[in-house]
Design a protein that fits this description.
CATH class of the largest domain: Alpha Beta
CATH topology of the largest domain: Rossmann fold
Order of helices and strands: EHEHEEEEHEHEEEEHEHHHHHH
Structural class: alpha/beta
EC number: 1.1.1.169
Distance between the termini: 53 Å
Protein name: 2-dehydropantoate 2-reductase
Largest sheet: 8 strands, mixed
Low-confidence stretches: none
Helix content: 40-55%
Radius of gyration: 19 Å
Number of strands: 12
Family: Belongs to the ketopantoate reductase family.
Number of helices: 11
Enzyme class: oxidoreductase
Catalytic activity: (R)-pantoate + NADP(+) = 2-dehydropantoate + NADPH + H(+)
Shape: globular
CATH architecture of the largest domain: 3-Layer(aba) Sandwich
Number of domains: 2
Amino acid sequence: MKIGIIGAGSIGLLFASYLSTFFPVIIYTRTKEQAKEINDYGVVRKNGSVQTRIKVKAQPIAAWMGKEELTIITVKQYQLSSITEKVKDLETPPESLLFLQNGMGHLKLIEKLPVNNLFVGSVEHGAYKESSYIVSHNGVGKTNVAVYKGDSTVLRELAEVVSPEFPLVVCKNYYEVLVNKLIVNAVINPLTSILQIKNGELIKNQFYLKALKNLFAEISYILNLENQEEYLRQIIEICKNTSDNRSSMLKDIEAKTRTEVDAILGFLLEEANDQGKEGRK
């Protein structure tokens, strides 16, 4: 199975480094310069003190024609519109696309794409892009994927081959997959960004932990969550497992680049507005 990966940020590089062990992979980059560096040096993945150099083919995004059996889209949500327009303009639509974005706003962008198999997913790994071709795998987790439209055969073939080295779990309900990640992102990302702290500090400091619980209560109220204790336990567990990580939103702020706050919190604000809910007293 040939795999394309659109986006050569931390997640794109991470996926390319692992999946290239099993499949022919082409990673599509925003610039010709990054594609050249990946072609020259490969993708270097850091796992603690261990460095692994993996040969990966790279091309600029303009070269993508959707010919691979599966294309994984790892760009940030606010960059998706140009990708979805390109999909619509292709002479032959791609067979299968997997979208790995934070939030849930991208569902409106992908729902009418002329693609047989549309998949969505959430990534629990911690990754940091150190350069155009070097990625640090800081937190080992799994990728949860589900069918949004179409057939799950490609996803199951992928999961069977890459797990357990790079765990990929095929789930039944795409909404649950995205909501679970949305809750985590909506709590951890804004708080760590405002407080300028690593993830673990949210549960080590009693005042930060109180803020975490208050924000989670607001989110639970909007989403009408039934098993709140389990969701809260999951958030706290992720803070522990990624204690030394900076959230993606905090890293964006530190890099003075655009954040995904609209993608992460926009869905919740729309839900609250649709239900006529105001902030909890």
